[in-house]
């Protein structure tokens, strides 16, 4: 008999399994994919670590999360400084003085503030996402850098999207292209999979095993179940389907040393169907003579079967809460991770949440 059956070998499940093993608990991890690591999985091709499920940049202001992850890998000094390409015009992101100077041919923060505040004041009433975005950054930035990208992301026009999707749009009046404000940032040298391998060292893992397809049989094997999969799937969608947005990643090998000169380029015009191109070699400054790029196409969850971004609107949250009530009736069941909690979590928050659960439940 196992103490814990852990469903999912992503970061959440793996951190918990590691902590449980350290305290002497016997764990079994089941994973429906053919590899460990969940969405942070990376693999090597021609000396380049490929981020299979989209760009993963570790960034945190939490000393605890940073110290924890550094036990399992050495991090480089990668700083995320993405570029936006709008109809061949190149802008720096996040919106900062480099962006404004390129957009309006100005030099000082005062000039930028004047232009933005004039454009912001044109919106008198906020009825949709378009109004919201213009009221935060003005129409020039909205038209060139937000509109097309957001419409591709959500598959709907900005004037039909609710304003709540964008709560803040950080605007920096400094010449600073560092996307994140966090104290720590980097990429693990050698990729993320080694972190999961080390976390799961000495723990039994069964790959290609979908818990939901053998629920009864697998549940009998352990005293407790930590479930990190989608909550509606656990209950066989008995109350209905939760909705997500997904992405299709198209990986290409390019016979060039340097394709776009930076890890991330956002394509912000609507006419280009993908939202971003990731060039993987820049994460770790690989000197490979070839390169790999991934084009990211936002798609409906039904197309890929991969639930990436929960759609936390009213209807979905009501459904999720019904499933959560149902989960409370199952005494063996513990929920954790981004899927079971129907939320988006960055990696640092995932580690902290898993450590918190470990502290509370493993004596
Ligand atoms: P994750 O989804 O990783 O793991 C769950 C695992 O459970 C999966 O392996 C799945 O196959 C398995 N599973 C599900 N159902 C199962 C079943 N029925 N039976 C068996 N196994 C089952 N964060 C960050 O800090 N910086 C970044 O740059 C990014 N970038 C980013 C890009 C994209 C496109 C996404 C979607 C997400 C990010 N993230 C991120 C977030 C990051 O991916 C996230 O924090 C972790 O992957 C969460 O780990 P979990 O273990 O919760 O879920």
From TrEMBL:
Among InterPro entries, the record links this protein to: UDP-GALP_mutase (IPR004379), UDP-GalPyranose_mutase_C (IPR015899)
Q: Which SUPFAM superfamilies match?
A: FAD-linked reductases, C-terminal domain, Nucleotide-binding domain
User: What residue ranges are annotated as transmembrane?
Assistant: none
The EC number(s) attached to this protein equal 5.4.99.9
Instruction: Give the GO cellular component terms, alphabetically.
Output: cytosol
Task: Please provide the record's keywords in A-Z order.
Answer: FAD, Flavoprotein, Isomerase
Q: Domain UDP-galactopyranose mutase C-terminal: where? A: 144-344
Q: Which cofactor does it need?
A: FAD
Q: Name one GO molecular function term.
A: UDP-galactopyranose mutase activity
Regarding protein family, the annotation reads: Belongs to the UDP-galactopyranose/dTDP-fucopyranose mutase family.
Question: What name goes with this protein?
Answer: UDP-galactopyranose mutase
């Amino acid at each position: 008999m196992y103490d814990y059956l852990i469903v999912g070998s992503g970061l959440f499940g793996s951190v918990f399994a590691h902590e449980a093993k350290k305290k002497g608990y016997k764990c079994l991890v089941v994973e429906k994919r053919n590899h460990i690591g969940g969405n942070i999985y990376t693999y090597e091709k021609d000396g380049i670590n490929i981020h299979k499920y989209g760009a993963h940049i570790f960034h945190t202001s939490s000393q605890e999360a940073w110290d924890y992850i550094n036990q399992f890998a050495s991090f480089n000094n990668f700083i995320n400084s993405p570029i936006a390409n709008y109809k061949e015009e190149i802008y720096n992101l996040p919106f900062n003085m480099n962006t404004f100077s390129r957009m309006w041919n100005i030099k000082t923060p005062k000039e930028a503030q004047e232009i933005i505040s004039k454009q912001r004041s044109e919106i008198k009433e906020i009825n949709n996402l378009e109004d919201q975005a213009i009221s935060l950054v003005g129409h020039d930035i909205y038209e060139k850098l937000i509109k097309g990208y957001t419409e591709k992301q959500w598959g709907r026009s900005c004037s039909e999207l609710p304003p709540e999707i964008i709560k803040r749009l950080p605007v920096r009046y400094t010449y600073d292209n560092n996307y994140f404000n966090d104290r720590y940032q980097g990429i693990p040298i050698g990729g993320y999979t080694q972190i999961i391998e080390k976390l799961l060292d000495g723990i039994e893992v069964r790959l290609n095993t979908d818990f939901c397809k053998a629920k009864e049989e697998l549940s009998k094997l352990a005293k407790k179940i930590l479930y990190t999969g989608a909550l509606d799937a656990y209950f066989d969608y008995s109350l209905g389907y939760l909705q997500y947005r997904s992405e299709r990643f198209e990986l290409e090998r390019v016979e060039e040393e340097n394709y776009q000169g930076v890890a991330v380029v956002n394509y912000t015009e609507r006419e280009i169907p993908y939202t971003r191109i990731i060039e993987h070699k820049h994460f770790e400054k690989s000197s490979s003579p070839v390169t790999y790029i991934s084009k990211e196409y936002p798609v409906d969850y039904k197309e890929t079967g991969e639930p990436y971004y929960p759609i936390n609107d009213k209807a979905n949250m009501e459904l999720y809460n019904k499933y959560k009530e149902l989960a409370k009736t199952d005494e063996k069941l513990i929920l954790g991770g981004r899927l079971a909690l129907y939320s988006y979590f960055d990696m640092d928050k995932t580690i902290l949440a898993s450590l918190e659960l470990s502290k509370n439940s493993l004596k």
